[in-house]
Amino acid sequence: MNGGQIILRLGFATTVLAGAAFIMDGTCTFMTLFAFLVVVSRIYAPFDQCLMLIAELFSARTASARMRSFYEEPLATGDGAFEPVGHDVVFDDVSFSYGGAEQVLSHVSFTAREGEVTALVGPSGSGKSTCARLAARFWDASDGRVSVGGVDVSAVDHESLLRDFSVVFQDVLLFDDTVMGNIRLGRRDATDEEVLAAARAANCDDFVSRMPQGYDTMIGENGSKLSGGERQRISIARALLKDAPVVLLDEATASLDVENETAVQTALSRLLADRTVIVIAHRMRTVLSANKIVVLDEGRVVEQGSPDELLAADGLFARMVRLQRESADWML
């Protein structure tokens, strides 16, 4: 009920009360009041309906504006044939902004080489996750070029490009299906043995063994019956099962305790060999074994090199490592 309807109904109620008072003191008869109220109700009802329709029109206007914004988005097009030479991921002077607003990335250049682990680190909001999403062409760069194996990703159809990507982002997407069914989304034609092998590598066995039907247990909409760490391990298992040549890990171990994090990192180290791996992490211990580290700050690359080189340079990366080591020793 909107404000106009409330005012109308209060007015009508006031009229009824006033009429009742007139009957009590003999000013008018009940039939006179009844006839008066019939006439008033015939006037009041159309106004009440109009006010209801006005509220619905305002709501429809908001919804139609959102629908128009969807239709105004440019269609993503590209070549269905994707034949890269190797799987080096190259950012060449890339800039990006969301909807023409403030730039998130500014002239970013680096190469994530095949067979190596490249870690993106930096303060929150520095553009690390945006880089990973641009590599998988979730968006197109505003300026510059992102390429995989020498092929500009903006010229490749999304379906064709993503066949070569395994992705584990912070926001895990699961379905109201069994544990087995959710992991098998990584590769639909995988056998049960392959699914179970990926699950074991992602350290899923310990919590799945406690479920009523094991791997056949329904996990609820978006994994509502699981903890954050359990949901993330299923996502990691799905990525491992896909066995794609390019792997994007955005805070893949963020919801795991120290013991499970170590187990998953060991599995990742073993199973991601000879692939192009881009890792995003805030825990410096997670990336100290990477082949290359790219340090981002306010959307720009401020440092890049091996962990030893960056520690020796005593820049932003070295400062972040020191701060995390100091915080690890903090006690109440």
What this model shows, in words?
It is a multi-pass membrane protein. Residues 89-323 form the ABC transporter domain. Helix 1 packs antiparallel against helix 2 and helix 11 (307-313) crosses helix 12 (316-328). Strand 9 (292-297) and strand 10 form a beta hairpin. The longest helix has 43 residues, at 30-72. This protein has 332 residues and is of the alpha/beta class. Helices cover 45% and strands 17% of the residues. The mean pLDDT is 82. Strands 6-7-8-3-9-10 form a 6-stranded mixed β-sheet, with helices on both faces. Strands 2-1-4-5 form a 4-stranded antiparallel β-sheet, covered by helices on one side. The radius of gyration is 30 Å and the shape is elongated. The chain starts with a helix and ends with a helix.
Give the strand order, joined by hyphens, for the main sheet. Answer: 6-7-8-3-9-10
Mean pLDDT: 82
**Strand residue content:** 15-25%
* Sequence of secondary-structure elements: HHEEEHEEHEHHHHEHEHEEHH
Question: What count of structural domains?
Answer: 2
Strands, count: 10
Second-tier CATH architecture of the largest domain = 3-Layer(aba) Sandwich
Transmembrane segments: 6-23
Organism: Collinsella ihumii
Membrane topology: Multi-pass membrane protein
Main location: membrane
Give a topology summary.
Layout (H helix, E strand, L loop, with lengths): L2 H22 L5 H43 L16 E9 L5 E10 L4 E5 L6 H8 L7 E6 L2 E2 L5 H5 L2 E4 L10 H6 L7 H10 L3 H4 L19 H15 L3 E5 L7 H14 L4 E5 L3 H4 L4 E6 L2 E6 L1 H7 L2 H13 L4
Parallel strand pairs: 3-8, 3-9, 6-7, 7-8
Antiparallel strand pairs: 1-2, 1-4, 4-5, 9-10
Keywords: ATP-binding, Membrane, Nucleotide-binding, Transmembrane, Transmembrane helix
Main location: membrane
GO molecular function: ATP binding
